[in-house]
Amino acid sequence: MEAGAAHLLVETEQLEALGPAFLLEVRLDEGAGSLPDADVAIHPSYLEAGCDESRYYPHYERPEHGNLLPLPELQKAIAALGISGERLVVVYGTGDYHAMIACRVLWGLLVAGVPDVRLLNGGLQAWRAAGKPIKDGMERIGLRRPAPQVGGEPPRWAPRLEFVATTAEVEEVQRSPESAQVLDIRREGEFNGTITDVYTFFAVAGHVPKSTWIENWDQLVEEDGRLVDPSKLAVKWRESFGVRDGVRLIMLCGTGWRSTIAWLLARLMGRAAANYDDGFYGWTFTGERPIEPKPAPSPSEDIPDGPSK
Fold first, then answer.
1. Where in the chain are the domains?
2. What pLDDT, on a 0 to 100 scale, did the predictor assign at position 30?
3. What count of Cα atoms within 13 Å lies in the side-chain half-sphere of residue 189?
4. In CATH, which superfamily holds the domain spanning 161-284?
5. In this structure, which topology does domain 5-129 adopt according to CATH?
6. 183 bridge partner residues
7. What is the pLDDT of residue 307?
8. How many secondary structure helices (H) and strands (E) does the chain include?
9. CB contact at 8 A, 271 and 159
10. Which pLDDT band holds residue 196 (cuts at 50, 70, 90)?
11. Which residue did the predictor score with more confidence, 5 or 86?
12. What does the alpha-carbon distance between residue 121 and residue 102 come to, in Å, rounded to a whole number?
């Protein structure tokens, strides 16, 4: 395992022992409450569009609208939150989709090169369940509360671009399947092509050829909001879904949010892994790349409310 990968996850009872940390809250809506020492709250789309909420999910017109900002802009947007890289950053999520949105932001910070970033396992849900104090929900950075502008050069962080998979890399898997394994974390109906109305901005069904379905993303989160045990999950992936040892894993979902949960768990397993930020939206956008729909036994799969990403 790469040094430090096992420490990407922090439990509620460990947080105070870490010393002063920058607590970054990620929320979709206002009013869920915040950790008492939280520094700032953002929407996950802040890393895609800064303070321009008119471009936040689901207001995408092209795949790149749902991608991380270009690297210099991304680093400056993060620095505008007060993150300097000299202090540990702990990311936590709120609401029903806390794991998805917090993992997305954790991944984005690491891609930008923030040196020490960790996820509070279970987010606000686990914090509240432990009987810890909670303050009134913070107002998110956005149009009403813009982040300070950061001029000059972006921070001198070393980006981790190996955590990002491009469409060209996924295309390479079509030619050389031994180069990596693409793992699809969407619902089975999305993968098989029976669910087409997940998004408001695209409705193509099916999956990337030579990709492997590994269950819906919500199977990676326990009922208490914490992530599943990565060592047990590694066995399940290998034995039930044929995930290969020793190859780079490319995680895929609709637009690169859900897949960051699988990416983090793969990193905790010690695997080389990347998140495909374009997602199935980017793969299908031009209509020129191959898709493999497969018939599903149950066309009436329920679609839960809320973001799919």
1. 5-129, 161-284
2. 73
3. 14
4. Rhodanese-like domain (3.40.250.10)
5. Oxidized Rhodanese; domain 1 (3.40.250)
6. 212, 251
7. 65
8. 9, 10
9. no
10. confident
11. 86
12. 10
